[in-house]
């Protein structure tokens, strides 16, 4: 039986140390791929229908499954970065190991906890909910979804962090939130007949130090009025949630609206394979 409390403290200390090395505050969101590369750990996306993730100590590289959804890829990258930080040696993980609350080894539980603390530290959660004037104890599924979008994590992953790790919501609220799914939330906020595998809800409080990362076909709400299409995205509609755009071509765009809201939009090819730093520009030769 693992001592979850002790492992949790080690995970928290490690996550805090890595942020400190890059002078990233504990209350700020991160892009996990940029974060890992800044620590000189290479990040590659690779295919395979049963591939869960991998850390190669010999190549100082983490491998992320190209065929998984974006939130899953983010958590996988943080999980594998944990293996690197704790010097676990080369690790190949299956689909059921990453993010599992009942990991079958001490190392796997440790890096799952590390990934949670790195992507969703308590000060960051308080800051992101607070800036949006959301009361965590009574928050709604769409409010959770907005914060999860900002952090790059999955809806249920954030719900689990609030309940299991930080005990910021009670059991009844946890069960109520867990009845919702990303698919049900998308169907609630998207216009009829618009289908997408992934939706980012970027609101007016979005931290503009974090780019909006989409794959071709993904959609995003942005909190501004746009009146013309871009080479990398098309405008689908305007409604109470904002301007709905859909990524159409690989590349980087700047969204600069008249209301003063601005941010960068980075679009990668669907199921991109290659090094993470090239995902918006195509596959490199090396």
Automatic annotation (TrEMBL):
A Pfam family this protein belongs to?
A: Peptidase_M78
Give every IrrE N-terminal-like domain span.
Answer: 55-162
Query: Which top-rank group of organisms is this from?
Result: Bacteria
Q: Which InterPro entries match?
A: IrrE_HExxH, Rad_response_metalloprotease
Cited Gene3D superfamilies: 1.10.10.2910
Protein name from the UniProt record? ImmA/IrrE family metallo-endopeptidase
Q: Which organism is it from?
A: Pseudodesulfovibrio methanolicus
């Amino acid at each position: 039986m693992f001592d979850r409390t002790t492992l949790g403290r080690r995970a928290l200390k490690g996550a805090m140390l890595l942020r400190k090395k890059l002078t990233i505050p504990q209350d700020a969101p991160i892009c996990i791929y940029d974060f890992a590369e800044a620590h000189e750990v290479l990040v590659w996306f690779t295919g395979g229908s049963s591939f869960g993730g991998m850390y190669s100590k010999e190549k100082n590289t983490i491998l992320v499954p190209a065929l998984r959804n974006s939130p899953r890829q983010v958590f996988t990258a943080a999980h594998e970065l944990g293996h690197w930080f704790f010097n676990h040696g080369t690790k190949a993980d299956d689909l059921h190991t990453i993010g599992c609350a009942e990991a079958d080894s001490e190392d796997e539980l440790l890096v799952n906890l590390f990934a949670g603390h790195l992507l969703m530290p308590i000060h960051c959660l308080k800051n992101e909910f607070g800036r949006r004037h959301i009361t965590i104890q009574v928050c709604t599924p769409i409010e959770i979804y907005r914060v999860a979008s900002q952090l790059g994590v999955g809806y249920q992953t954030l719900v689990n962090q609030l309940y299991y790790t930080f005990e910021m919501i009670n059991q009844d609220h946890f069960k109520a939130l867990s009845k919702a799914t990303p698919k049900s939330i998308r169907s609630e906020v998207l216009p009829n007949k618009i289908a997408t595998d992934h939706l980012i809800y970027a609101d007016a409080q979005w931290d503009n130090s974090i780019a909006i990362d989409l794959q071709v076909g993904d959609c995003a709400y942005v909190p501004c009025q746009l009146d013309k299409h871009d080479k990398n995205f098309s405008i689908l509609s305007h409604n109470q949630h904002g301007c709905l755009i859909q990524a159409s071509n690989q590349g980087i765009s700047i969204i600069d609206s008249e209301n003063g809201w601005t941010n960068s939009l980075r679009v990668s090819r669907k199921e991109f394979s290659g090094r993470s730093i090239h995902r918006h520009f195509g596959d490199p030769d090396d």
